[in-house]
Design goal:
- With about 500 residues, this protein is mainly alpha-helical.
- The chain is built from 22 helices and 2 strands.
- The longest helix has about 35 residues.
- This is L-lactate permease.
Amino acid sequence: MVLFWLTLVPFVLLFVWLVPLRRPAFEAAPIAYLATLVLAVLVWQISGTVLVASLLDAAIVFVEVLLIILMALLVLNVMIGTGHMSAIQSVIASVSRDHRVLAMLLGWGLVGFVEGIAGFGTPAVLAAPLLVYFGMRPLKAVAIALIGNSTAVPFGAAGTPVIIGFAGLGLDAETTRSAVLQTAVIHTVLAPFITLFMVWVATLGEERGRFREFVPFAVLSALAFGIPYLLVAWLVGPELPAIIGGVVAMAVIALAAHRGFLLPGHEQHPEVERAPVGRVLLAFVPFAVMAVALIASRTIMPLREALQSVRWSPGEFHGIELGQSLAPLYTPYFYFGLALLTALILFRVSRATLGQAVAATWGKLRVAAIVLAFIIALTQLLLSSGSNAAGLPSMPQVLGQGLAESLGGTFVMFSAFLGALGSFMTGSATVSNLLFAQLQADTADALGMALPTVLALQLIGAGVGNMISLHNIAMAAGAAGLQAREGQVIRETIIPVIVVCLGAGLLALAW
């Protein structure tokens, strides 16, 4: 257990620096990385070659993540600079200008849809700056986008956390199907809590009645996503629940808000200066191109395989196979790039406007890039720590084994927290599953628990852990222009993580 406590040190430092001390992440991230490096060298005895290899892997991931944020922000800033975002704003404002409704429409429905087709932190990167553009404070926008994203994550990127994350377990089809169904059932039951918490964040600092009167609409929003999400998971599998759930939720939320359904005092026809229909349709074209291309790339299997086959890998470094590679035609930044190219051509963007968009984008990226560089380096060092001269398991494995041993017979109650720990460390539900799914399966076997139930808890935890991952927070905060407030975001998102993980454990016991 000594190793377990030692491995916790970097994360305790990170948490203390960000939350109780309220220091910015660009200070906390280097300190956490340095602590991890000391442990890796002195205790795990990793070689200089392994260390450099982890940095090379980190550089590849950093480039990929930075390109996603860069392209997303460039699209939005070009749209703003050309005035076409105001056309989209007029359409959304005609539905509602209420920040609570916008939280449901963009932070819940849109985020779920984008998570389903893209993943990789893309939903919060897109939704958070949109919410800011529509007048929401950046802190609220980032927290709402991260919280709203959690339910869709287990089936994000066309089911990648299941398809790739569980690939090494050798599961039969029925076990996988049962795990997917249980995940969807539990998330659907808990979805109203997620939407209610999002509304609570949106109404912070406002009259209490603003939250209470919106409860019925928040529950409607939860069901509008959760019911199709559950049905598709049951009838189809892990590839489409988030995509279909997001589309249905956006349609139901928009229609209900426009008609004032479950919205006391709602104006049936708000006075909004609407842009001409042709300009509105034109404004949506870049996003439509991106959405169609993304859906095709994820659902048309021959196309998907062809795009994934175009891959650049650095190969080996002094006999160590580098684990990261770039798939430029499959990763979300390519599809944001398509949207950007469409906007540049369609709107005939001038050099001056493009220059202003680039300057605005760089202004938001500078600090986020520092945080991301150190957090990604820390993540890759954790993953590489299994290659050591001390004969020890990797640091994440030590953490997982320590938790499993400590919890014993109560493991099922806290199993989801292990999945959340994986996402907190790596910023990826898929990587969390790769790290801990086998440990979850072994523990379930030792304790005589149903394997699908424990895997469902791993999926749920891996999803909600994205809310508190500094990797994802830094991406969303950078896109929304929120700087040095990462600890406050964690203070807003830690409660739903705890409630969902405990709630999932209780529901699993009753399964």
